[in-house]
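Need the bound structure for 2-phosphoglyceric acid, inputs here:
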Amino acid sequence: MTKLILMRHGQSLWNQLNLFTGWVDIPLSHQGIHEALEGGRKIKDIPIDIVFTSTLVRAQMTAYLVMSQHHSGKVAVVKHDDEAQLADWGKIYSSKTEGKTIPVYYVWQFNERYYGELQGLNKSETAEKYGHEQVHIWRRSYDIAPPGGESLEMTAARTIPYFEETVVPMLERGKNVFISAHGNSLRSIVMDLEGLSKEEVLQLEIPTGAPLIFNYEQGSFTREEL
Ligand SMILES: O=C(O)[C@@H](CO)OP(=O)(O)O
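Answer from helper R.:
Posting the output first, comments after.
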């Protein structure tokens, strides 16, 4: 059995201001830094072999803050995704030292759902303008995209293939995997792992800085309560 840990980044400065964020690259707030450290303490004793995060700084900050709390004492090392560079990087430090590191991969497919024309707008003001129901549909429905942005279905079309082609084989090979990502990119993954319907995913909320742990065995995922 191997473990998959999913975590939404801690509160960002735009979460704090209640602004639609999507692909805008906003760092964590002071509160978000504390949430990430607290989330890290909750999983500090679970061995982690490999870390995936998005290309956005709020998820990356969260990944490093989580790993700073980890009991292994291993150093998180960024593996840049250029293949040639990756091959070279493998040679620039000793295999003895490599045993004391945990590789971190930046994966654009795990970026937040692109929010199109809503990015930078205030969530409450947008709900006042277009109606709470319409804005809830844009924010939580499966197949209705916000203006100029991605639906959850479109987000899943990039998160799930990467997850299946790269993350699942790691779990199969006995590796425990930690993914630091975003509210909606993680909703698309949890929807898939738990087989949620389009109706059920409307209610799925992923809190900031709270690890979700799944046990993986023989092709199936079971959520473990912390
Ligand atoms: O602004 C965003 O990118 C997301 C996550 O904060 O918004 P929502 O709360 O609608 O999922």
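Comments: The radius of gyration is 18 Å. The mean pLDDT is 94.
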